[in-house]
Structure prediction request, 85 residues.
Amino acid sequence: MSELTAMKNIGKEMSRKLTAIGIDTSEKLIETGSKSAFLKLKETYPQVCLVHLYALEGAIQNTEYNCLSVETKQELKAFSDLIKW
Prediction:
C-alpha cells in the first residue's frame, strides 16, 4: 500500500483530509476516483474547491494538476458546478 503523500499534488494536509474520510492509501484514492473522493471531502470539508478536485485527478493521473488537459479540466469544472451547495 502506498502513502498518499507519495502521489503528485497530495501534501500532508490533503492526505490528512483524505484519511479522515476513509481514503488512506493511493490505491484507495485511485479506486474511489477523483469525483467520488471530492464529494466525500466536500461533505466533511465544505471549503474544498475546484482546485482540490484538479489535485485529486492529477494525483490519480500522476501529473501536476495544472498539467491536466483542457478537456479534463472542463469536465471536472462542470462536475464541480453541478454539486455546489
User: Anything to note?
Assistant: The helical segments are 12-20, 26-32, 34-44, 50-61, 70-82. The chain has a mean pLDDT of 96.
